[in-house]
From TrEMBL:
Entry's family note: Belongs to the short-chain dehydrogenases/reductases (SDR) family.
InterPro entries: KR_dom (IPR057326), NAD(P)-bd_dom_sf (IPR036291), SDR_fam (IPR002347)
GO cellular component: membrane
GO molecular function, one term: oxidoreductase activity
Coiled coil: none
Ranges of residues in domain Ketoreductase: 10-192
Protein name: Short-subunit dehydrogenase
One Pfam family recorded for the sequence: adh_short
Superkingdom of source: Bacteria
Keywords recorded for this protein, A-Z: Oxidoreductase
């Protein structure tokens, strides 16, 4: 679906738009009539921006490292330089690190926290104040199904996503009176390069186990944001049933099950 320039819906910000779920969310926003500010670390961002322009969108592409405060500020300066109200903010950027906590690099994990946690809070501060002042807006924050269980061998990633999920739920309640909605997206394992980039090729997660479609996960997240839902589990029926079971299963049991899938194989 393409929308004419005269019928554009507004301006949307998408982080982590270079690939995976973020790329699909950017394309969805373009097809639904939004002009875009997109950001990512990868040079592939330019290709995504060009695809979105072919949908009729004006696109501002910002290559930035959101794990650094300067990167977040550069993205927000770009949003402000459009001189337009921001209607949608999709805070999707995130990464994992696989391996034993005894062996992983501390600086790498601090970088993960900077991207998955600090950048979300930092950018959400700008976005939420902006939207509250204009008394309208929609925010989608990508968390993970990993937010619902301990994640051994991704020992920092899971807690970072649990923080983001609770942050989204808390912010949602605060912004209700300002006519701004906040939705959390909790994808299950998805057909992206996520586990490869986390160094998890030699795990059950990385060895081709059945995964959810990134196109479908993005569609579910985008639809939930537009309708103002509090959260959505991204994926197929099996993934959604797993999320329900996680409400009742004890944490030690869930930790053992996750370790079986995330532990590196010799």
């Amino acid at each position: 679906m393409e929308t004419s320039k005269s019928a554009r819906s507004g301006l949307a910000l998408i982080t982590g738009a270079s690939s995976g779920i973020g790329r699909e969310l950017a394309l969805l926003a373009a097809r639904h009539g939004y002009d875009l500010v997109v950001t990512g670390r990868s040079g592939a961002l330019r290709d995504v921006a060009e695809e979105c322009r072919r949908c009729g969108s004006d696109v501002w592409a910002v290559e930035a490292d959101l794990a650094q405060s300067e990167g977040v500020e550069n993205v927000w300066k770009t949003v402000m330089a459009t001189n337009r109200p921001l209607d949608v903010a999709i805070l999707n950027a995130g990464r994992s690190i696989g391996g034993s906590f005894l062996d992983t690099d501390l600086n790498d994990e601090l970088d993960l926290i900077g991207l998955n946690v600090t950048s979300v809070v930092h950018l959400a501060k700008h976005v939420s104040r902006h939207m509250a002042n204009q008394r309208q807006g929609k925010i989608l924050i990508t968390s993970s199904l990993s937010a619902t269980l301990p994640t051994p061998y991704e020992t920092v990633y899971g807690p970072s996503r649990a923080f983001v999920y609770m942050f989204a739920q808390s912010l949602r309640q605060e912004l209700r009176e300002h006519n701004v909605t906040v939705t959390a997206l909790l994808p299950g394992a998805t057909d992206t390069e996520f586990h490869h980039r986390a160094g998890m090729d030699n795990t059950a997660f990385g060895k081709g186990a059945a995964k959810n479609s990134r196109v479908e996960v993005a569609r579910q997240g985008f639809a939930a944001m537009i309708s103002g839902r509090d959260h959505v589990v991204g994926g197929n029926l099996k993934t959604k049933l797993v999320a329900i079971k996680h409400r009742f299963l004890p944490e030690p049991y869930k930790a053992v099950r996750h370790a079986e899938k995330a532990r590196p194989r010799s």
